[in-house]
Design brief:
There is one protein chain. This protein is an alpha+beta fold. It contains 11 helices and 5 strands; from the N terminus they run αααααααααβαββαββ. Strands 1-2-3-5-4 form a 5-stranded mixed sheet. β2 and β3 form a beta hairpin. The radius of gyration is 37 Å and the shape is rod-shaped. The chain starts with 13 loop residues before the first helix and ends with a strand.
């Protein structure tokens, strides 16, 4: 199976530079043809048709190959090496064939091929490591030496001169390739450090936001407790006293008073529960594993659903933003099950294998249609994806109509 390659696996700017080289080489060869055939007056030989056809075919192929995304999607990892192979082997075949027709001019022979091998060398060093550069130098040298040997078998001095020039050029290419690969390694390291710094900054911002939200929730809880809860509590006491001192009451008035008292008490209970939820800090009190267990069991008890729990006891400690993200994603997933799934059973799993932390929430409800769009209008799913992105995790949703839905959050710690 061919490994996949997307646009992001190529170094930034490499493909545009490769395309520019194809056009520059086309212009350079056209200029050389004008100088040789029209200015210097070198006669055109019919034997040049094969190399002209090879050059045109190579240029058209590289242009289409580098501009069409279809090749990049289907060839995967082999995409760039194939383009570099054509771009480096083509000039060797063409120039060696031309020199076979017109004869060798030694230094001219060396400098004609030099620039057309330098650019593929730079692109190879730009994308890959020094080992690939060495492979490129050895491969091009062996290919050209083979042509030199075949075309000049009876001229030992010619073979010696060309062989020495090719070896010297390959050593120079190795030196240039080493410099470029070293610079690219440093650049990649700096990019990685910058990305890590950006991730830390994003996590710090999330932590600050969560601290602010926690403080604001506590302030709202205090305000509601001092106002709404006290008001409802006092109202319930007054209604209870009124029912006691106003006996006997007409039946209709007694029913209305009982209903008002029951409504007030229900409102007070709901207020107290809301205040408890506002001030609750299950992650700080119990940690991620125990908090998820309590969350899942409360959900199963509330909706009277069979629950399967698979949560490891000892998983170590995690950063606050990681615990918050996992807890809130599980909370949102369970809330979606209660509102949409019509499930009969629920499964919640939290496992850690090496550095991979995986949360799985699944149900056997009605599932989601295959063409469902988990787009930005699904605010719950969008929020879960944003939380996953903030901690560098991935959120996967597998849904099948009539078979249920599985949500999976995975993070490399």
């Amino acid at each position: 199976m061919i490994p996949t390659m997307n646009e992001h696996t190529l170094e930034p700017g490499l493909l545009p530079a490769f395309r520019a080289y194809v056009f520059v080489r086309l212009a350079a060869m056209a200029l050389v043809a004008v100088i040789y055939f029209f200015w210097i007056g070198v006669p055109f030989e019919l034997a040049l048709f094969p190399t002209a056809a090879l050059f045109v075919g190579e240029t058209v192929f590289l242009y289409l190959f580098l501009c069409r995304t279809w090749f990049r999607r289907h060839l995967g990892w082999y995409y760039l090496p194939l383009a570099l192979l054509v771009a480096s082997a083509g000039p060797i075949l063409e120039i060696r064939y031309v020199l076979g027709v017109y004869g060798s001019t030694r230094m001219l022979e060396f400098w004609l091929i030099f620039p057309f091998l330098t650019v593929p060398l730079i692109l190879t060093a730009w994308q890959y490591h020094f080992g690939h550069v060495a492979l490129y130098c050895v491969g091009t040298a062996l290919l050209e030496l083979a042509f030199v040997k075949l075309s000049s078998a009876t001229y030992a001095i010619h073979v010696l001169f060309d062989g020495g020039a090719i070896v010297a050029r390959s050593l120079f290419f190795l030196f240039v390739g080493y410099i470029i690969t070293h610079l690219m390694s440093e650049q990649r390291r700096q990019r990685q450090e910058l990305a890590e710094a950006n991730r830390k900054l994003a996590r710090y911002a999330v932590t600050q936001e969560q601290l602010f939200v926690s403080r604001e929730r506590n302030r709202l809880a205090r305000e509601l407790h001092d106002t709404l809860a006290h008001t409802l509590s006092g109202l319930a006491v007054q209604l209870d006293a009124l029912e006691t001192v106003a006996q006997p009451l007409p039946p209709k008035a007694e029913r209305m008073l009982d209903h008002a008292l029951m409504t007030t008490r229900d409102g007070l209970n709901e207020t107290r529960r809301a205040l408890q939820d506002l001030r609750a800090t299950p992650l700080e009190d119990m940690g991620l594993a125990l908090a998820l267990k309590r969350l899942a069991r409360n959900f199963a008890d509330l909706w009277e659903l069979p629950l399967t729990l698979d949560i490891q006891e000892e998983m170590g400690t995690f950063a606050l933003e990681v615990e918050q993200a996992y807890y809130r994603v599980a909370q949102e997933a369970l809330d979606n099950i209660s509102r949409h799934a019509e499930a009969r059973t629920v499964m919640v799993s939290l496992t850690r294998v090496d550095r991979r932390l995986t949360l799985t929430v699944s149900d056997d409800g009605r599932g989601i249609a295959p063409d469902a769009d988990f787009g930005d209008d699904h605010f719950g799913i969008r929020g879960m994806r944003e939380r996953a992105a903030l901690i560098g995790g991935t959120l996967e949703i597998e849904a099948h109509p009539g078979q249920g839905t599985t949500l999976r959050l995975v993070t490399e710690l």
